[in-house]
Structure formats: C-alpha cells, structure tokens
C-alpha cells in the first residue's frame, strides 16, 4: 500500500513539474534571434513614437544579438539618445561612456561627448543645493570645447558653459549672503571675493562688489570699502548696486567727495583688482 502511494506521489509530482514547465515556457518565450535590420528598425519606430524606454531597450537588443554588426555601434549611441529623451540621464551617460570607450575613432564621437555634457547639464539644480552636478556639466562642456573646437557642438557648449559658470557664481553668492546675514563678515568676504576671482564675466559681479563694500564697512575697514566701491563705480557706473554702495558710504558719514580724491585715486579696472 505504501509503495502504491509512493508511486502515485511520484507521478503527481512529475505531472506538476511538467505543468509548471509548460506555464514557464508560456510566460517566457524561447529566445529567437531576429535580423539586425528588423531589430534596428523596430527600435527606431519606437523612438519615433516617443516610446523612449522601450526604444532604448530595443536598441540594446541590437547590440546584444549582433555585437559585431555595424548597426550595433549605431545602436549603442541611439540607446543613449533614447535614455536621454526619457530623462534617464545616468543610463544615457553609461551608454555614452561605453560608446566612447569602444569606438574612440568613430565620426559620431563628438556628438557622444556633447550628449554626455547635455545629460549633466539637464541635471543642474537650483543654487541652494549641492553643485557637484553643475561642476560635472562644466567639465563635460569643457571636454567638448577642448576636443572639438571647430565643431557645431563646441559653439553650443560655450554658450551653455557661460550659463553653468553663472550658476556656480550664484551658488557662491548665495553662501556669501547667508554668512553676511548672520554677521559672519570674514566668511562672507571670502565668498564674494571668490566670485570676483573665478567668475569675473558673470552677472553676479556688481552685487559681489556691493556686498563686499557692505561687509568691509561692517568690520570698520573704510579704506577697503571705498576702494571696492570705486571699482564698482568704474566698471558698472550705471548699476543700482553702485548707487546703493555710494549711498551707504555717504550715510556712514565717510567723506566721499573731498575733491573726489577717494574716487580718482582708487579707480581700478576689475581685471586689475587682484
């Protein structure tokens, strides 16, 4: 009786195993290799339909099934582009790094570097947050400008670099204002001077000079305050920041006229200040 029960159990177990195997095969169809042109065109159709995630996966499949095909090289780059369009910037950067590493002499390498820079650039956050991504973007934009100076990508990279630099200067100004509001004037001065030293071409320079003037006055350094205000007036005479600094000096009873001597004796171009 025990033997019969055991035999029945074995048969039932085998039947169950076969059933599970059948179900498994229904869930996961057997791997079928497809022609490379069919795979690539299917991925391109998905991209045109803005099915970016599916398109990226389809381009990846081209490379997986036909790694030595000329289409595999193009598919790697197109996969990165699809990830970029889908805002999957980390995946795009990974694919682009692989493309650049495997195909350094490919004519599309300049575009790969450019798209990598854009993938960082699109992730730049507001000035109140950590600016590591902004630095990555600037380094990658510099890569494009340095490696491919005569390309169409370099021209756009230069424009975006200017915006990136302005963003970094904005971060220094934000920190400087924070210190200034807390009465930590030496720390604030260091931040404002960094803007003048590293980011002289940005829109933040007039405000940096004005806030330096304020900070020097708060520390009782009237000579430095007048010198800084004179640089501000010489380089940005119509700026409201200069008008504010001038009014601040007058309001503090500092002799700003006296034959205009403080102005003419200390007027300095911004580039000669440091």
Automatic annotation (TrEMBL):
Q: Where is the signal peptide?
A: 1-24
Domain Outer membrane lipoprotein BamD-like, first and last residues per copy? 34-228
A GO term from the CC aspect: Bam protein complex
A Gene Ontology BP annotation from the UniProt entry: Gram-negative-bacterium-type cell outer membrane assembly
SUPFAM superfamilies per record:
TPR-like (SSF48452)
Q: Where are the TPR repeats?
A: 73-106
Keywords on record: Cell outer membrane, Lipoprotein, Membrane, Palmitate, Signal, TPR repeat
Q: Where is this protein localized, as stated in its record?
A: Cell outer membrane
Its placement in the membrane is given as: Lipid-anchor
Q: Which Pfam families match?
A: YfiO
Similarity comment text for this entry: Belongs to the BamD family.
**How is the quaternary structure described?**
Part of the Bam complex.
Q: What is the role of this chain?
A: Part of the outer membrane protein assembly complex, which is involved in assembly and insertion of beta-barrel proteins into the outer membrane.
Q: Which NCBIfam families match?
A: OM_YfiO
Against HAMAP family, the record matches this protein to: OM_assembly_BamD
Q: What is this protein called?
A: Outer membrane protein assembly factor BamD
Q: What organism is recorded for this protein? A: Thalassospira xiamenensis M-5 = DSM 17429
The gene from which this protein is expressed is bamD
């Amino acid at each position: 009786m025990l033997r019969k029960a055991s035999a029945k159990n074995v048969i039932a177990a085998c039947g169950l195993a076969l059933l599970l195997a059948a179900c498994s095969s229904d869930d996961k169809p057997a791997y079928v290799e497809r022609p490379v042109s069919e795979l690539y065109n299917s991925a391109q159709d998905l991209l045109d339909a803005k099915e970016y995630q599916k398109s990226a996966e389809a381009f990846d499949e081209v490379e997986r099934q036909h790694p030595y095909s000329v289409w595999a090289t193009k598919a790697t780059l197109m996969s990165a582009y699809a990830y970029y369009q889908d805002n999957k910037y980390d995946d795009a950067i990974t694919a682009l790094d692989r493309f650049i590493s495997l195909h350094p002499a490919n004519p599309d390498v300049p575009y790969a570097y450019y798209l990598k820079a854009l993938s960082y650039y699109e992730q730049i956050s507001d000035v109140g947050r950590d600016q590591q991504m902004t630095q990555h973007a600037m380094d990658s934009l510099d890569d494009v400008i340095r490696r491919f100076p005569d390309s169409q990508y370099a021209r756009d990279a230069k424009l975006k670099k200017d915006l990136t630099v302005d963003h970094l200067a904005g971060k220094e100004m934000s920190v400087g204002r924070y210190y200034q509001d807390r009465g930590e004037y030496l720390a604030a001065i260091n931040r404002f001077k960094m803007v003048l030293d590293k980011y002289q071409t940005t829109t933040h320079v007039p405000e940096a000079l004005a806030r330096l003037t304020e900070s020097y006055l708060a520390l009782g350094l009237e000579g430095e305050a007048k010198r800084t205000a004179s640089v501000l007036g010489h380089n940005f005479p119509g700026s409201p920041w200069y008008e504010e600094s001038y009014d601040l000096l007058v309001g503090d009873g500092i002799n700003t006229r006296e034959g205009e001597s403080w102005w003419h004796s200390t007027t300095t171009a911004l580039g000669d200040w440091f």
